[in-house]
Predict the 3D structure of the following.
Amino acid sequence: MTHEYAEQLFLQEKPTLALLAIWSFQKTYASVITKEINSTFAHTTKILAKMQDQGLVKFTVDGRVKYVELTEHGYRVVDALKALILAIEGDSAQKTEENGNNISNVSKPGDVHTPDDKKDLTRKHIDRLHKEIIHIYNSLFSEGSKPGDMKMKIGPFSRDIQLLLNSIEENEEIIDEEGLDKLNEIQNIFEQVMR
């Protein structure tokens, strides 16, 4: 993907909404995306074809139904879009650093952590995720946002929640009671919004 093409694709509303919608539904089809982004079917399929060409989405056929879902590269792009949306909505660099999200605090593959370090990192991740989801949910609820808008804003957190659950399933020692309560609250909000 050339730099100019990437800008043209993701600095437009419909492609960004389409990618976030695919993220929200995990595995869906073009007509659902069309409805979610309030577009025409022809325009949606053109967007999806461009995304497929760039390795962001893949299609699978089951009987007569053609499904679309994100690739690993697509997940990385959604993570970047999610960070961009949060930044645009008012998260300053200072707030990000205060929340422990600056780049120097991010765990990298190969880092060695003691059990206490892992517990601390998990807690920080849960606290950050809890704060972000609660803030977004409360803002959208107070504005009287439509359910579809809530899905678009909260849906992208599904992967973060699942990664946390997987980590905790592998090692229950990395979470305390307060962290578990916050994680349960996040899951309840997510499930309520995604229904």
